[in-house]
């Protein structure tokens, strides 16, 4: 047998592996070249100003994963909790605008805290550049299953009759649940006693036990107790009914005239330090909206009780301005403090 025939497969095997490696390397290089220079840097970080495990953290990790998987970003999530979200937010405000640092924005840290913490040396609503918004989350108004209150109208009537006597639980002072309760009472011309807890779980546990009258809770935790028959859902606080809760009306649908325009929701988006180049902001904004449009991403939002709310930097900036004015008025009228 001709030795040249037996040697050909071996030669092909020896040359095919380096060729495959070269093609793989070339493809990776082309993908990297397609990204702007700032995105090619390893260590680009998305700061979450809260501890791991909550909704903010989940949304940030889903977004970073989508950007990395779909577009090759080298983005990592960094949790920097403390001072009601102010610690991590300030870190991004003070960061260089070179595309290496981004903030997972939330209505609480961006639009509420500047009014709630008058001693802050920065204002997230004006000291950061909005990149894009991608989600909104309402709250769920719940009462104990044993409560005689069966509707928002019932609760409104009781609050007016017993102004200053009824109380409501929240996961802490200055949270969305706290300020939504203040806005609700103010709209009715009534007063309610705020009972802050250190987290959602203890606040809902005491509500189940009948130690407090009502609460505006985050949807996943509150709905689990509704399904278990321990709480009764009266309404969602958003402008529209939640897809996950189609049979639960909005507060505005209650028929109570004073609540006809009632709406309370939390917006999520990405922000950048001031000075970040406009094209860098626009490029990331476009990719964020592509990730947020994916069915898998929106499905995860639903699990966390949120709905898609897609908007570019200009639309996000406009929403921040409206929300900042709204919550500043609530804080001033109620005298709420953190």
TrEMBL record:
<protein>
    <recommendedName>
        <fullName>Tripartite tricarboxylate transporter substrate binding protein</fullName>
    </recommendedName>
</protein>
<keyword id="KW-0732">Signal</keyword>
<dbReference type="Pfam" id="PF03401">
    <property type="entry name" value="TctC"/>
</dbReference>
<dbReference type="InterPro" id="IPR005064">
    <property type="entry name" value="BUG"/>
</dbReference>
<comment type="similarity">
    <text>Belongs to the UPF0065 (bug) family.</text>
</comment>
<dbReference type="InterPro" id="IPR042100">
    <property type="entry name" value="Bug_dom1"/>
</dbReference>
<feature type="signal peptide">
    <location>
        <begin position="1"/>
        <end position="39"/>
    </location>
</feature>
<dbReference type="InterPro" id="IPR006311">
    <property type="entry name" value="TAT_signal"/>
</dbReference>
């Amino acid at each position: 047998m001709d030795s040249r025939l037996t040697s050909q497969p071996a030669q092909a095997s020896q040359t095919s592996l380096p060729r495959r490696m070269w093609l793989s390397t070339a493809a990776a290089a082309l993908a990297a070249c397609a990204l702007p220079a700032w995105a090619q840097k390893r260590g680009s970080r998305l700061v979450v100003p809260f501890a791991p495990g909550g909704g903010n953290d989940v949304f940030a990790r889903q977004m970073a994963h989508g950007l990395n998987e779909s577009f090759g970003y080298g983005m990592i999530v960094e949790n920097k909790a403390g001072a009601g979200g102010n610690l991590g937010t300030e870190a991004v405000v003070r960061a260089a605008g070179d595309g290496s640092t981004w903030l997972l924005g939330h209505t609480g840290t961006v639009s509420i805290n500047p009014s709630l913490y008058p001693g802050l040396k920065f204002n997230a609503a004006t000291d950061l550049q909005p990149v894009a918004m991608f989600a909104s989350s309402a709250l769920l108004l719940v009462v104990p299953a044993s409560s005689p209150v069966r509707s928002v109208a019932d609760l409104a009537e009781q609050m007016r009759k017993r102004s200053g006597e009824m109380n409501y639980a929240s996961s802490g002072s200055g949270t969305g649940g706290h300020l939504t309760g203040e806005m609700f009472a103010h709209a009715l011309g009534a007063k309610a006693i705020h009972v802050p807890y250190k987290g959602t779980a203890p606040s809902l546990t005491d509500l189940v036990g009948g130690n407090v009258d009502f609460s505006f809770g985050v949807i996943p935790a509150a709905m689990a107790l509704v399904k278990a028959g321990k709480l009764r859902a009266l309404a969602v606080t958003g402008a529209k009914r939640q897809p996950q809760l189609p049979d639960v009306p909005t507060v505005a649908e209650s028929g109570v005239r004073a609540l006809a325009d009632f709406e309370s929701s939390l917006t999520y988006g990405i922000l950048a330090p001031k000075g970040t180049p406009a094209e860098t902001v626009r490029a990331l904004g476009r990719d964020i909206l592509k990730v947020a449009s994916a069915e898998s991403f929106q499905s995860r939002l639903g699990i966390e009780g949120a709905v898609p709310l897609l908007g570019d930097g200009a639309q996000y900036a406009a929403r921040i301005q409206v929300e900042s004015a709204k919550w500043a008025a609530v804080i001033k009228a109620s005298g709420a403090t953190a």
